[in-house]
């Protein structure tokens, strides 16, 4: 059955950005959700330079509430706790920073902005003047929402973790009143930094965390007591998704006795653990849950373009999703939020030339109605298409994406190439979709090649592990082989290639010019790490109790090898100009990295340009800073490749 599509959109209340800024500010509405009853639609918006929460009437799309916080506080992630009340994670932007940080505070507020109450956090213990409320508990900790308890209109379940310099504290499960802030202790979590999965009644059933040795630890809750489960029962990729609707077991993503990550189902009754679906080439990327969150009806795979697998076509959501996919062929489709009865859903549709548009789907009417357009303000035919590619590199077939420079479509001249390297490197990958940085480069005359080098996620454990202790060697070889392939295919000119990236991508940009000084004509590095040994002593990784074991696994501990794979000690081999950008408040890659690199470059009289922003951290968050950075990047590319 075909879906009825009605294009009716809400007019944006915000001013539109201009020119290339639109690429980075295209989604003025994000985190769009529908209330449990379906009466209201909520979304995060930028209001007066801060993230706020806007609420509209679902039928009229007229605004009925705007929740904007005072001072340096802003709206972070949020949930609908019941039909009228929302719980918001409060984030703050310090005067000396351009990005927001969470301190674990929770604010509860009605949909119309009334009756706001800071129900958890270090500022929550204030007298409630004008009410009969007693002084609330002041919480020096972080709150993580575990369960919204949909059948309980006055409470949610949270995990409260005390503040500490190290992430080694055991959290406490608490039921918290979303009106008064009163809390009821329900016992401690079995380990630090755990994910807790609850059953249909909101009872904790399963927990997963990491040991200090960086190994997964799994616990079952048996008669109110946490019991550690033998790790051999599950694979290295084990990640629990949801307890089944009859509480008889749970679904998980895992790779037990196989290389690729697939969907598994566990039975509490007999302890059986069976594979439900595994693809032949790639890991399962994500799952679609039914409206009650207790069953899975579809999976997403990312083998080039996104592909969706329907598991049980008899489930109503599966039938509806099939029709929606048919309506938006060639797009990525995700169900963002659903009403409690599952009748209404918020659907997001996006592609390589569409940053995202929101629709509301009515299951009873089989009808899609347009809600919020993006504010790209650039015709889609002006944007550049992204195509999946793959090539051989050593023992692996490596996948990636190629975006042809827009002006090249009408020209026989091969455009200069930017090899854009993703960060991570582990647990991260590039996927097909709208990328504002890629579009910026393509619209300015540069083709872009993105590579899921060995060590990237999504292609099985063997491919992931192949990147361990090969940051400065085989991963960089994969990148060079990508350039060679592009040249052989006529997609790039060997004399007009620049390598660019952020975080690990920045490390690769500089390290690759050390290893392959004749392959690239320039390198652009933002927020990079340039001395691997510093990862053991500097940065926010030190806050984690398992940092040493993780780093020893992925980069090793041999001082000579770490030095050998650190570009700061081999700048004498660099032949090309570098563009180095960094935020001076970066905690992941502290500014010591770029300072040491600049010192070495100066010593060897190597050419470089530096671009530092005082209030930025790991990457640039402020839109003006982003555009300043990219305009400098364009100038640098034009100078070295044109």
Question: Any overview of this molecule?
Answer:
By secondary structure, the chain is an alpha+beta fold. The protein folds into three domains: 1-11 and 19-26 and 302-383, 2-Layer Sandwich (YaeB-like fold); 38-189, Prolyl oligopeptidase, N-terminal domain (Methylamine Dehydrogenase, Chain H), CATH 2.130.10; 386-641, Rossmann fold. It contains ten helices and 36 strands. The strands form eight sheets. It has an eight-stranded mixed sheet with strand order 29-30-32-31-33-34-35-36, sandwiched between helices. The chain has a five-stranded mixed sheet with strand order 1-28-27-26-25, covered by helices on one side. It has a four-stranded antiparallel sheet with strand order 2-3-4-5, with no helix packed on it. A hairpin with a 2-residue loop joins strand 3 (40-47) and strand 4 (50-57). The longest helix has 19 residues, at 623-641. It starts with a strand and ends with a helix.
Give short descriptive properties of this protein.
five-stranded mixed sheet, 3 domains, alpha+beta, globular, YaeB-like fold, Methylamine Dehydrogenase, Chain H
